[in-house]
User: Which sequence fits this backbone?
């Protein structure tokens, strides 16, 4: 695991360029709210988006949504753009898109201007993440 400081970026493609990575080399940690008020983390590579039908099927629920920024902060202790399962105030379940396996990826490091580089397989193992096809290409 390595934390690297980088200039502020206005978008994921810009952050990838600053780090010398393709967009798919950055994994977004998205906080997803269940209808019972609990949350989960979805690890989604750049250039892809959550497939709600796929994620609902893997989680085994009928309803999921992205919470408002304030709720995501309350659930994790991190602001959007910096969220990571590592160090979250609550140890929510992690669901990782299968395309990140076998790779070293960059992700949020808990603060703006920093990126965390991790071995995706080690992260998946450490958090007991469920690995599945949960994304589709972004439009």
Assistant:
């Amino acid at each position: 695991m390595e934390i690297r400081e980088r200039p502020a970026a206005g978008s994921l493609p810009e952050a990838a360029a600053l780090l010398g990575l393709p967009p798919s080399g950055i994994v977004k940690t998205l906080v997803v709210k269940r209808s019972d008020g609990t949350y989960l983390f979805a690890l989604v590579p750049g250039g892809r988006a959550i497939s709600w039908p796929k994620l609902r099927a893997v989680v085994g629920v009928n309803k999921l949504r992205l919470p408002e920024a304030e709720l995501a902060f309350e659930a994790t202790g991190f602001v959007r753009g910096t969220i990571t399962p590592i160090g979250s105030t609550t140890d929510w379940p992690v669901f990782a898109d299968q395309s990140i396996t076998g790779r070293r990826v960059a992700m949020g490091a808990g603060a703006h201007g920093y990126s965390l580089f991790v071995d995706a397989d080690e992260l998946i193992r450490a958090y007991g993440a469920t690995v599945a096809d949960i994304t589709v290409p972004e439009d």
Summary: DSSP finds four helices and ten strands in the chain. The longest helix spans residues 12-19. The beta strands are 2-5, 26-34, 39-45, 48-50, 64-65, 94-97, 104-108, 114-119, 130-132, 135-137. The mean pLDDT is 95.
